[in-house]
Design a protein that fits this description.
Layout (H helix, E strand, L loop, with lengths): L15 H9 L20 E2 L12 E7 L21 E6 L5 E7 L7 E6 L7 E10 L2 H8 L10 E2 L4 E9 L10 E4 L2 E3 L5 H4 L10 E2 L11 E5 L4 E3 L5 H4 L5 H12 L6 E5 L4 H12 L3 E6 L2 H10 L3 E4 L6 H8 L6 E4 L5 H9 L5 E4 L12 H6 L3 E4 L5 H12 L7 E5 L3 H10 L5 E5 L3
Parallel strand pairs: 14-15, 14-17, 15-16, 17-18, 18-19, 20-21
Antiparallel strand pairs: 1-2, 2-3, 3-8, 4-5, 4-7, 6-8, 6-12, 6-21, 8-9, 9-13, 10-11
Length: 440
């Protein structure tokens, strides 16, 4: 099993970006919830690892558990409730039998905030007490069902969950009880196909996708395959690291795929959103010059505060292609498209510098990438898609955050407020990232 080297915790402090976040969206109300105690008759012994600031339980115990086979990659919930299990797992005390979650039973149907059973991990899985979960545009697509990939139903969405390991299967060696861990989009893969063995596990045809083909992080306790869960250094701000687990890894991978060199220009469409604000920071940390494209004064100020040299408001610029070419003295060497509309993809093929690379990341529903053939050939441009990162990309992306080179511009609300976040997301009124506190 892979092991990671502990890294220093992030020491980021409040900035003007945080103040901009507070001003970018209307205030939301919170509703608190309670947790029921997990009853157990077995003996307990003290944990040797330092306690989490919001501990799931102070003891380590042995119980018997029985989950669905870990080698099965069909679209199902991972496991069975604790009370029906028979195989060995290691866990903390205090795990409740039920938990609060956001769940929908049919595509586009009501999102229900209600209690559901806590599941037990399989032999190669961990159970994470999710403290915070970011909200991604993918979660909105999963609920609306407008991608050409069926979701598991009923479904608990979410794939940016940061929390504490509270139980693990007997085959898990890369996590201990009390470790910090992240539940990512790529929940699991077969590890044996041509893609997995070459480091392209996101392309595995048997991949398990959190909050899409298996239940995700919009719940207080979520399961992940241990080999794919993200190791998070102790002491990390779990609320701020949550968006790194999808948005951060995704844009970091896209920047690597762009082949842009330090000192070169990179344009980021949708620069003021959850992915864009992180893409700006990763690009700056990698030595790139950043041009942000989005609209609105709040996003303009935020992107420039994060390091964009130039901001172009697409709603106020008559000729975006000409303006981009002008300010970058010939066009950006790379374009990272994280916008959620089709038009920016087409325009990026027009203004990218000859021999430059257009990277397709955002996934607007029913959209196409269009580029006029003659110019594509004569300019010798590259158009490529970039999916989420692999395990190495994950470690690297989290490391940037842990060293304080990347900060997540977030707004924290309760898990119970997810439908309101989706409403703001559909209206395009979110700057930065919303993060859900699972205790509210």
């Amino acid at each position: 099993m892979l092991k990671t080297t502990p890294r220093l915790p992030c020491q980021s402090s409040p900035t003007s970006v945080s103040r901009l976040m507070r001003a970018s969206s209307p205030p939301l109300t919170f509703r608190s919830c309670f947790r029921r105690p997990f009853s157990s008759a077995v003996s307990a012994r003290p944990l040797t690892t330092p306690p989490d600031p919001r501990p799931a339980g102070p003891y380590k115990i042995q119980v018997r558990a029985n989950s669905c086979p870990s080698s099965s990659y069909s679209h199902h919930s991972h496991s069975q409730p604790f009370e029906s299990t028979t195989d060995s797992i290691t866990m903390t005390s205090g795990i409740p039998k039920t938990q609060y979650a956001q769940i929908f039973e049919k595509t586009g149907g009501p999102i229900q905030y209600r209690e559901i059973p806590v599941q037990a991990p399989g032999p190669d899985e961990i159970l994470v007490n999710v403290k915070y979960s970011g909200v991604c545009h993918t979660d909105l697509h999963a609920w609306k069902g407008d991608w050409p990939l069926d979701t598991k139903l009923p479904l608990v969405g979410g794939h940016e969950g940061a929390g504490v390991v509270v139980a693990k299967g007997d085959q898990v060696t890369n996590f201990e009880i009390g470790d910090y861990a992240g539940v990512k989009w790529l929940n699991g893969s077969c590890l044996s196909c041509e893609f997995c063995i070459n480091g392209y596990e996101p392309n595995c045809p048997h991949a398990l996708l959190s909050g899409y083909t298996v239940d995700g992080s919009f719940q207080q306790y979520a399961i992940a395959k241990a080999i794919h869960a993200a190791p998070i250094p102790k002491g990390t701000d779990l609320a701020k690291v949550a968006p790194i687990l999808c948005a951060g890894i995704t844009v970091y991978k896209a920047l690597k795929e762009s082949d842009a060199k330090p000192g070169q220009w990179v344009a980021i469409t949708g620069a003021g959103g959850g992915l864009g604000t992180l893409a700006i920071q990763y690009a700056k940390a990698m030595g790139l010059r950043v041009l942000g494209i989005d609209t609105g004064d709040v996003k303009s100020k935020m992107t420039q505060a994060l390091g964009a040299e130039v901001f172009i408001d697409f709603a106020r610029t008559p000729d975006i292609v000409a303006e981009v070419i002008k300010v970058t003295n010939g066009g950006p060497h790379a374009v990272i498209n994280v916008a959620v509309a089709e038009k920016p993809f087409e325009m990026s093929c027009k203004y990218v510098r000859p021999r430059g690379t257009v990277v397709v990341v955002g996934l607007p529903a029913h959209a196409y990438v269009k580029s006029e053939v003659f110019s594509t050939v004569v300019k010798s441009i590259t158009i490529k898609g970039s999916y989420v990162g692999n395990r190495a990309d994950t470690d690297e992306a989290v490391d940037f955050f842990s060293r304080g080179l990347v900060e997540s511009p977030i707004r924290i609300v309760g898990l119970s407020e997810l439908p309101k976040v989706f409403e703001l997301m559909e209206k395009g009124e979110i700057a930065g990232r919303y993060v859900l506190d699972t205790a509210k």
